[in-house]
Amino acid sequence: MLLGATGLVGGHCLKQLLDNTAYGRVTVLARRPTVIENDRLDWQVIDFERLEEQAERFQVDALFSCLGTTRKKAGSAEMFRKIDFEYALTGVRLAQTMGTQALMLVTSAGANSRSPFLYMRTKGELEDAIEDLAIGRKHIFRPNLLLGERAENRRAERIGIALMRILTPALGGPLKRYRPIEAETVARAMVAASLTTGNGTTVHASMDMAAFAT
User: Fold this and answer.
1) pLDDT in tens, 124-166
2) How far apart are CA 168 and CA 4, in angstroms?
3) Could you report the per-residue pLDDT of 42-89, keeping only the tens digit for each?
4) Greatest pairwise CA separation for the chain in angstroms
5) Is 110 exposed, middle or buried (0-12, 13-18, 19+ CB in 10 A)?
6) Which domains does the chain have, with CATH numbers?
7) Active site (catalytic) residues
8) N or C: which end of the chain has fewer CB within 10 A?
């Protein structure tokens, strides 16, 4: 199952999953319909306020959670937290209840429940909330600034990305850990991680993802 398929990382993740025959079926729960046609895709339009009513759909081998927005796009800090924390956590809990044994969760570099910044604090709170959930393999992905073409127009982010593309070659040595990362690379790393064995929680920084996705 994939949550957040209409986002930057989620869109790439969907493509990677549909291209990988290791998964026989990919279920997507989303707020709007899709034009994608694929025999292995089960795309369901739902109201995330009623996510718990979809519990039976969470009988899946693996959950990919790419839910995320910005405070500006959400319209308020409360709505941002609802999407990035409440919806995401509800999805993970439903997956646990239905026996899912692999979780791939996107948060952010700098995620910390004690951060003074709303974005980093919310991502950190989500990580803390899933820590004790009984899912065999939990992979947490903390990407730096994401590179890629978004459907929506984020002018400030586009400017920042353009600057980071220019500066990235200068981020060598110890600074290499701060390099931005392509959203497609994050998605590749998520799919690769989902097919590994073993139990426990693994946190992937951007540098780890780049190596893991090759």
Assistant:
1) 999 999 999 999 999 999 999 999 875 555 555 555 545 545 5
2) 28
3) 999 999 999 999 999 999 999 999 999 999 999 999 999 999 999 999
4) 50
5) middle
6) 2-152+181-212 (3.40.50.720)
7) 119, 123
8) C
